[in-house]
Specification:
Blueprint: E1 2-7, H1 13-24, E2 28-30, H2 31-41, H3 44-55, H4 61-72, E3 81-84, H5 90-102, E4 107-114, H6 117-131, H7 138-152, H8 154-160, E5 165-169, H9 174-185
Helix pairs in contact: 1-9, 2-3, 4-5
Bound molecules: adenosine-5'-diphosphate.
Adenosine-5'-diphosphate (ADP) binds near residues 52 and 86.
Length: about 190
């Protein structure tokens, strides 16, 4: 079972993805975490990605596509995974669709975490104070929200045609939202 968690920055993808992955016993693949690890480790990929990341821009597909391919090919992800933070562009969606199709698999559910822009900004501001992520500056946050609307939100229509998109109200307690996700996917 492959489940994609989609939503704007600050919508709670990481939190809900973790709960879901643990409950279903599936690995969670998180491109943002992979990039942060690469940047901290100073790998060539991390160095290439950093300037885009820090400005809140998408890291180019030329860098990300190989990373996604490698992650999906890992033995742990053979029977399924929770995808957090990708696909984020049409080219990434195409790669995921194609890679899964080659294995006779597909994305089973897309969970769209729906949170108002006002609430997103409030959460990102308070997270910036706690975590101090390099892309939580006001400028980078504004860019990330714009990039989500421009490049990632259109994927909703792409997947909605297949009838696999579930809109999840992203405001409420963490437990309430997790409960709603459980109800939607039926396990
Ligand atoms: P958020 O959803 O809060 O922006 P993420 O950790 O998912 O947090 O992403 C942080 C940053 O990492 C993005 O702004 C982008 O620079 C980079 N990134 C993460 N995933 C991708 C991806 N699939 N494609 C391109 N860039 C990505």
């Amino acid at each position: 079972m492959h489940i994609l968690i989609l939503g704007a920055p600050g919508s709670g993808k990481g939190t809900q993805g973790k709960i879901l992955a643990e409950r279903l016993g599936l690995p969670k693949i998180t491109t943002g975490d992979l990039l942060r690890t690469a940047m901290t480790g100073g790998t060539p990929l991390g160095l290439d990605a950093k300037k885009y990341y820090d400005e809140g821009k998408l890291v180019p597909d030329s860098i990300i596509l190989g990373m996604i391919k490698d992650e999906l090919a890992r033995p742990e992800a053979k029977d399924g995974a929770i995808l957090d933070g990708f696909p984020r562009t049409a080219a990434q969606a195409e790669l995921v669709d194609r890679t899964l199709a080659e294995r006779g698999q597909r994305l089973n559910h897309i969970l769209l975490l729906d949170v108002t822009e006002e609430e997103l900004l409030r959460r990102l501001r308070s997270r910036a104070r706690v975590e101090g992520r390099t892309d939580d500056s006001p400028e980078a946050v504004a860019t990330r929200l714009q990039v989500y609307q421009r490049d990632t939100a259109p994927l909703i229509a792409h997947y909605a045609q297949r009838g696999i998109v579930h809109r999840v109200p992203g405001t409420g307690t963490v437990d309430e939202i997790a409960g709603e996700i459980k109800r939607i996917i039926g396990r």
